[in-house]
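Lab notebook page, bench 4
Experiment: in silico fold of construct C2
Operator: M.H.
Input chain length: 552 residues
Purpose: comparison with the prior construct
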Amino acid sequence: MAHEPGPHTLDADAVRTWSSLALAALGRAREDIDAINVYPVADADTGTNLYLTAEAAARALDESLAGVTEGTAPPATLAAAVRAYAHGALIGARGNSGTILAQLLRGVADVLGADAADPAGRAPGPLLARALTRAAEEAYRAVAHPVEGTMLTVAAAAARAAAAAGTAATAADVARAAYDGARAALAETPGQLPALGKAGVVDAGGCGLVAVLGALWQALSGREPAAEPVRGPAVPLPVPLDPEPCEHGQDGPAYEVVYLLEASDQAVDALRTALDGLGDSLVVVGGDGLWNVHVHVDDPGAAVEAGVVAGRPHRIRITHFGDQRRRATAPRAQRGVVAVVPGEGLATLCGEAGATTVLARPGEQPAAAELLDAVRRAHAREVVLLPGCPELRAAAAAAAEQARAEGVRVAVIPTRSAVQGLAALAVHDPEGSFDEDVVAMTAAAGATRYGELAVAERQSFTSAGICQAGDVLGLIDGDVAVIGAGLPETAEAVLDRMLGSGGELVTLVLGPEVPDTLAAHLEAYVQHAHLAVDTVTYRGGRYCAPLLIGVE
């Protein structure tokens, strides 16, 4: 008779349960963990970073198991599940704590993903103990200068406790031992790190790790860990309340730089040395050609340039700690706007209009976690979210749902192009009622037809016929309507079609390689052919398409 997986087995289903429970636990504890974040920088974001990292890991795991759930793929293996979980954490790691969590999960995957489980795809207790030991070892190696009294200390204590559970222990026994060991170690962190002792708090990253290990035990045992309130500060947290810009972090660098990097092991070794000389809190995690790099520096440009020397950095995020701390201590605004934009110039333009922006690079649409992060950065009680393209509708809805659970009122206006977002921003009234503002912005976006010019990369069938590589494609409302040989004539044809049904204002957004003479030419063309139509021109900046067109 086949052995049915019970509550003490660690298999692919248990990994999915662990992922879901860990995300829920970090979601509940996020604000409390943020509040006790004093080391290495008191930027009140450790809980948020751990949550966003766990969310990215959970999303990758769910995507890898989608076929299994729908019955279109064979049953998932433990190895495949833990690898997907760890890879998602690597891709979505946020901040110092999230980056370390990603490496801990990679260490677990290195052992459990080696197909060392039993024939039924289940991991016995001793194998889980080895995985937790590898996780702690990998995390220590990833940090340039490990410090005790931190998340690393808690991970090491969990690993020691797991190993001491014995060879006869079930996976659930090992998980419980690791959880208990981590809790005990967490309680000792204020005596190990002066910054924690002075503030009267435990380590924030370690607190998050205890939540993750508690979720692992719950997934394997079916028993819910007792709710433990996060130990609050005995004295006020050392967060600057000065509204003036903060030039440096607290006794440290002023910027956090994070990016994904495609590079060889040898190149990453050299990168570690280069970045170690630029700042502190250096953590480099990953392997097999893909890495997540985190460092605190005063010169973020030099940190990015070091990545360029090593390989191909992307998804680059640079955060100024002074700005972050001011947001954490400042009172919430009544209303904010979050706009996803496909160009740096557009980001500047929308920022000047008061929006919090998310940059969408070609081939790299932002995930729900990035949109949620932007909603939080808006620091408002009410937020209007402008996703800017149909592909982001689901991610925007997921981000809005989570933000609502955190007490923020969010409305998603289904903008399909950046020019619709500009139209919505133009009528935004932060002083009016939320509902009226949303209705007005939605109406303005819906009344704006949108076009785009792009260059075909290869021969393809389109709704306007067959295009060849190098042809200029004129899209209207998302469909190819014109195939031309050059930008000016194709843009004219697109404008004629868009203005054929009327219009009062044409918005032109130029890409970085498009000369100003094209804008002048098109303005003159519109003025000659459509006397009552006004034209306004903006620069889209880097990452923008050659030309975006809006007609209102």
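Observations: The longest helix spans residues 12-35. The CA atoms of residues 200 and 233 lie 5 Å apart.
Next step: discuss at group meeting.
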